[in-house]
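Hi F.,

I've been meaning to write this up properly since the lab meeting, where we talked about keeping a consistent format for the predictions we share between groups. The idea is simple: the sequence comes first, exactly as it goes in, then the structure tokens exactly as they come out, then a line or two of notes. No screenshots and no reformatting. I'm using this chain as the first example so we have something concrete to point to.
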Amino acid sequence: MESFFRAIEDLFVNILFAPFDMLRMMESWWTANTLNWIFVMVGSVAFVYWMLQLKKYNNETEKASRVSAHSFIGNDANNG
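Output, unedited:
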């Protein structure tokens, strides 16, 4: 069973994380953090897209709905 966990360790440390080790050893801070900047940009674009979709949905539902405190209150009570 120990060899199974050693194999998993070897897979992650020597193969899957090798590109991150290369980024860590770079001389320039900007190039070493390129992946982080990509994640920040993707997250920012996703956030803006999500907010625009929420605004669009909110605008569509405002037109079609009226807010009342109880369902038994008719439309006449909302008019004043």
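Notes:
Helices lie at 2-16, 18-24, 29-32, 34-64, 75-78.
Residues 68 and 74 are 9 Å apart (CA to CA).

If this format works for you, I'll send the rest the same way.

G.
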